[in-house]
From TrEMBL, chain A:
GO terms for molecular function: nucleic acid binding; tRNA-intron lyase activity. The keyword Transferase does not apply. This is tRNA-intron lyase. Its EC number is 4.6.1.16. Residues 193-271 form the tRNA intron endonuclease catalytic domain. It catalyses: pretRNA = a 3'-half-tRNA molecule with a 5'-OH end + a 5'-half-tRNA molecule with a 2',3'-cyclic phosphate end + an intron with a 2',3'-cyclic phosphate and a 5'-hydroxyl terminus. It is an enzyme of class 4 (lyase). Keywords: Endonuclease, Hydrolase, Nuclease. Belongs to the tRNA-intron endonuclease family. GO terms for cellular component: cytoplasm; tRNA-intron endonuclease complex. The keyword Hydrolase applies. Pfam families: tRNA_int_endo (PF01974), tRNA_int_endo_N (PF02778). It comes from Cynara cardunculus var. scolymus. It comes from the Eukaryota.
Amino acid sequence: VLITQPNLFFILIDCFYLSNHRVLLILNNFHLHHRSKTGTISESDFYLPRFLHTIFVPISSSISAYRRQVLMGPRWKGKGSEAKALAVPISRSILDLQASLIESNSHGMLSGCSVVLASNAEQTDLLNQTCFGRPIITVDKDKQWFQLTFEEAFYLCFSLRCINIVGGDNSVKTKDQLWEYMISKKPSFPTFFKAYSHLRIKNWVVRSGCQYGVDFVAYCHHPSLVHSEYGVMVFSEGNGNDRLRVWSDFQCTLRLCGSVAKTLLILHVNKTCENAIASPSYLDGYSVEERTITRWNPERCREDQVIVETRNNVSRQKSDSISSEVLTGTKMEREMERIGNESGQFWIFSLL
Amino acid sequence: MEIEEWAASSGGSSDSEVTAPDSDSEENCYAYGDLPKLQFRKDTSKACWKEELGMAEIVSNKGRMWTTTGIARGGKIYIFLEDILFLAEIGALHLLDDEDKCIPLEDIYKKVAEGVGGSSWESFEVYRHLKSLGYIIKRHGVCWSVKRDKRVPAFVEGESGSQRIINNGNADLSSITATTELFSAMQITELRPVFDVYPPNSKFRKSNPGNPIFVLCISTGSPPTKKQVEDLEGKCDGVSLKFCYVEHGRVSFFSFNQIELPVLP
């Protein structure tokens, strides 16, 4: 029995190994005296007891009854990539980068719509590993030069506080000055930056998506190790649908995304105040909602996908054994169908 | 009953999400004179057209399709125009008028063109596409069955709220037609849930259908805005939603799913 919080506990019914270092735990939940407003369990209600955190990382949960979440695991490039990625998570590389830039008192140079930054050997590696900026190939033997986008530069400067940025007159720009400058060059900068930082804060790797007809592409680790999962478009409230206005726009963008195996992700950035944002501190008042737009193909509805469905409290089941069978593809679906018809709730976890 | 996949007309594109090459170049272009023709089946069911309802009442049902088609009221099965046209096209149904004469396909097409009983050509194309693939489809807001001798009044789900039905098949049916009239009168461009779609299931029971895998909204104009999607999701109470549109005989389906990207390690 896993007790996650008072009056909310789960019984482990069964456990399967899936491919890709994932484990499927079948839990049956009893939520006594605990109901959220909608009568369902919200994701924040569920957390693993501490000892399980060392073994599992939940990577999927479905929330309301009958709502399905299609889970596609990250597509790693080649053997060993996933292990490499788990060994050195992006968050750690970013911390190292942050420390190194602070130590060397790094300054970026504002130039048009870019920021040019010099880096030493260690920083070069870290910038490449974390996909901040693009290296500029030069003859300079002493320094490596990178060019950063506004979002990348502002994230390093404002969110991570590890670089300063100077203007043409060599004076360090304050955050408000930078903000004003960047908006003057790119009016949509606030919503784009909010979207960018929304993903970066969750340790996703974010790069430009313009060659794919989208705003950003998001990877769960370095692009050399994993294929990108999402092509991201940023919509702000009010003028959201000026990017995808008619159905052929959808077809176009989805076609582009689909041919490079990315899912189209729309980040809806909602402003809580309508005033022109004079300062980046207003960013806290923005919220971001994530929605994917996917084609559904009725001929291929169930292939290549794992469908996770929750049902509330149906019946009890006991199981003493843990299956050591590896389930993949259609066999996994059949198993989940069978289980789903009987009882319980599905959670998919990744082994750390 | 095996509903075979028909080659012609509203074939869906087979775009895949992964790296498979575009395989939609296999359009079925027929040279003059070689169009296939379907044969009438041996066991053809018969239905009687009820003008006042905009529906047909099954008088003779053959084949196993009736476990998954039509709504049950007072011990009988009633079908909407899309069911009628689908079955008539493939020769599985004879539609009869008051004098027991067979209504020709042309007249059924006319009824759809006129939007009788809340039908439309586009919604029929969507229906036909999914039905051919084996999905089980019901109009949104209509119950699969209402038991004849139910003591408790049956409720008809609907956007206009539930309506108390007298323990009388006819009262229930006329409320259905009232609702469909309402839908027909609505703006054509208004986005609303049209069909409840259930997965292919040989053990399907109208008395216990389970939940649809999704509710389908058909868009005739522009794609939905975020607000429209949210409003519709609110109305459908936890069942997932899909949107589709029909263009030049091709039906495309889309999901707009709310997700939450995980925080990575």
